Every structure is written in structure tokens, then in C-alpha cells.
């Protein structure tokens, strides 16, 4: 009796899609409706989105969720906007819903789960096997659809750090009437590679404090004499440690901090500390203190 579906190819597609498959793909593999019904009743197929199934198990994973969203919106669909930026690790936090773009007209969003951007005939690329907008399109979309301009700047810094910053492609994708073009051009004008070396929101805030008061931007997260330091101005032998809420408060942390400072001072460096409250709420005073230490 002839098999109506190609088992080996079927399994390869399921593996590639992190355990997810669409109803349309099942039909392309000539899986009969009766078999789909039987698999569903047996728990081999589990519906995760309309006409999208988990195969064999429902173990959650981020990549499986991304694939489910792409499959749900149909042929030609790709990750886009902040979802593409997060998948490419250009931004730290994933959006609350998965954003996908499709050339189709009738694909509908699912409230709180998938945001479908329709009628977008865009070039597709892949990142870690998942269809995704190109890097240039991803950054443009991020600039168009975020209220946080700093996210765009950080994305450019990460690309620069990875040697993936293609200024020609970014400039070419900006154009009259293209949403995000103005914000992206502005971000390129104030591009700051050091953002890619910051670790956490407090260090980012400290970098922006330096920019705001026209202070030279330090080197971030440098290892010196066996210790990591948050910010360092080599020309001034000055080190700044920025302490977030709850950090550097235990007895062990305090001992480590004191030993590090003792070592750094022994090598001729000055060490000063600013906490979250000072960086956020006393920026004028912090800038003045840095100036007194010769930074300026």
C-alpha cells in the first residue's frame, strides 16, 4: 500500500521548525484528514495556533513560538519589527507579542499573541533558520515602531561590535515616505559604538549622562589586574563603578569591592562610585564631580 506522506521529509521539516508544522504543510505531505484527526486525538498533534500544531510534544521554547507565528501567517511570512531585532540579539528584551510581516492581504493578528503586518512585499533572509527581515529592514522597522530611540542606537552599536554594520545598506533603505527613515538617519548621526560594551540599564544611563554633558565616553567593562571595571578613562587613570539597586550590598560583595579598589589604587588609579539614584536623579552633580576628577 502506497504511503500518502513522506515520513523522512516530514520529520526533517518538523525538526527544522522546532517541532511545529502547519495544516497546509501537512496537506502538502499528503497526510489524510483521518490521520490528522487520529494524531490530534492521540496527542501526537497539539494545536498551538489556528492551523498550527506542535508535533510529538508541547515543550515550550522561544524558537518554537517564533516558528508557530511565522507558520500561522502563511507563505512568505517572516519575523519583523522588534521580534526580528530580538531574534537577531540587537535588543535585549522581546516584545510582548510576536511581530511578523507577510505579503498576504488577509492574515489576521491574534490579540496578545501575534501581530501580523500585512501586504509587506519585503526581501527575506534567515537567522538561525527562521525567516526574518534583512538586517537593514529590521533596523528600519525598529526605528519606525518603537517609542524608545535608544533601542535603535543600541542595535547599531551591536551591529558595529559584530562587524555587521552596513552603512550603505542602511542609508539606501531610508527614503521619502518610508516609516522610520528620519529616526534611523538621526541614530546614524549620533552612533556610539561604546553602547555595545555596556552591561545593564545603569551603565547605559551613565553613558548617556556623559553624552548629555559633553564628557568623553569611557571604555566600559574593561578587565584590569584581574578585575572587571565598569567605566575607565585611561587618560585620567579614573575608574567609575556604578552600583545598581541591591548590588554590592552583601558582606562578600563588599569584601570583593574593597580588594578590587585596593588593587586599582595600588596601580595608581582613582576609583569613584555612583549609584542608580545619583546617575538618574543627580546627573548635574555627577557630571560636576567627574569634571573635578579631570574628565572633560
Describe this structure in words.
It is built from 13 helices and twelve strands. It has 296 residues and is an alpha+beta fold. It has three domains: 7-55, no CATH class; 63-193, no CATH class; 198-292, VSR Endonuclease (Endonuclease, Chain A), CATH 3.40.960.10. A four-stranded mixed sheet has the order 9-10-11-12, with helices on both faces. Strands 1-3-2 form a three-stranded antiparallel sheet, with helices on both faces.
Write a concise keyword list for the protein shown above:
three-stranded antiparallel beta sheet, 12 strands, alpha+beta, 296 residues, four-stranded mixed beta sheet, 13 helices, Endonuclease, Chain A, 3 domains
Which helices and strands occur, and which strands form pairs?
Elements: H1 7-16, E1 20-22, H2 23-28, H3 33-42, E2 45-49, E3 52-55, H4 62-73, E4 78-79, H5 81-87, E5 98-101, E6 114-117, E7 124-127, E8 130-133, H6 135-144, H7 149-161, H8 167-173, H9 181-189, H10 201-212, E9 219-224, E10 227-233, E11 238-243, H11 251-266, E12 270-275, H12 276-281, H13 283-292
Parallel strand pairs: 5-6, 11-12
Antiparallel strand pairs: 1-3, 2-3, 4-5, 7-8, 9-10, 10-11
Helix pairs in contact: 5-6, 6-9, 7-9, 8-9
